UniProtKB/TrEMBL annotation:
Keywords: Disulfide bond, Membrane, Oxidoreductase, Redox-active center, Signal, Transmembrane, Transmembrane helix. This is Unannotated protein. The chain crosses the membrane at residues 12-32. InterPro entries: Thioredoxin-like_fold, Thioredoxin-like_sf. The lineage of its organism: unclassified sequences, metagenomes, ecological metagenomes. It comes from freshwater metagenome. Belongs to the thioredoxin family. DsbA subfamily. One of its GO terms (molecular function) is oxidoreductase activity. Residues 60-210 form the Thioredoxin-like fold domain. SUPFAM superfamilies: Thioredoxin-like (SSF52833). The keyword GTP-binding does not apply. Pfam families: Thioredoxin_4 (PF13462).
Length: 232
């Protein structure tokens, strides 16, 4: 009997060990599936310290972080009101400006893309060519009347690029192949860390602008809010 008990215990230990092993392997695969790709291609001028955002004037202080989705109508309105002032801050090197293109809007298709991803990828491709700000503007100028209308295809992104002088095969291939689609996941992951759940969201030196106080919609209040931390 003692021998049989010993055998049962040994068998039980083997079974338990196999179960633990299977659970461990399953956990590893689940983790890897949910973890942002570490080897994803990344655009020029990103800052990993800033959640892999697209950075202008990386050594300048203070810092403005702009979280936006190119399909977001409120982001289009914000851009129309405040873009010229932000561009001037960039040109005059009065602030470090970090753009975080989000891809909240729209279900992903079978190829893993939605129209926000297509647009964010195209903006990053333009960043590689030194034309992000131009692409940023023309995207909002050509925003569809309704979200996920099917208007923003890769071919349409290439045509917008042509209008701002982006005619190289490098840009076209970057758009067509979706080089930076996985990079957009890193932006989304960082948004969750920063508790950004709406667009546009703007931080100046880590402090969010006052949405209720009109700092997003009133250009005078927006400039005053930025000037308090930016213009010296």
């Amino acid at each position: 009997m003692a021998s049989n008990n010993s055998g049962d215990k040994g068998l039980r230990a083997i079974v338990i060990g196999m179960i633990v092993f299977v659970l461990a392997i399953t956990g590893i695969f689940v983790y890897l599936d949910k973890k942002p790709a570490q080897n994803a291609l990344t655009p020029a001028s990103i800052s990993k310290a800033d959640g892999s955002g697209l950075v202008f004037n990386p050594t300048v202080k203070p810092q403005i972080d702009i979280w936006e989705d190119f399909q977001c109508p409120a982001c289009r309105d914000f851009e129309a009101i405040n873009n010229e002032y932000i561009k001037k801050l960039i040109a005059d090197k009065k602030a470090k400006v970090v753009y975080h293109p989000l891809t909240f809007i729209g279900e992903r298709s079978t190829n893993g893309f939605n129209e926000s991803i297509v647009a964010a990828n195209a903006s990053a491709c333009a960043m590689d060519q030194g034309r992000f700000l131009e692409m940023h503007e023309i995207l909002y100028q050509n925003q569809a009347a309704t979200e996920n209308s099917g208007k923003w295809t890769k071919e349409f992104m290439i045509s917008l690029g042509n209008k701002i002088g982006l005619t190289s095969m490098k840009f076209q291939n970057c758009v067509t192949e979706g080089n930076y689609a996985l990079w957009t996941e890193s932006i989304s992951s960082y948004a969750a860390v920063k508790n950004v759940n709406s667009t546009p969201t703007v931080f100046v030196n880590g402090k969010e602008l006052n949405r209720a106080g009109g700092e997003y919609s009133d250009p005078a209040k927006f400039e005053a809010a930025l000037a308090a931390g930016v213009v010296k």
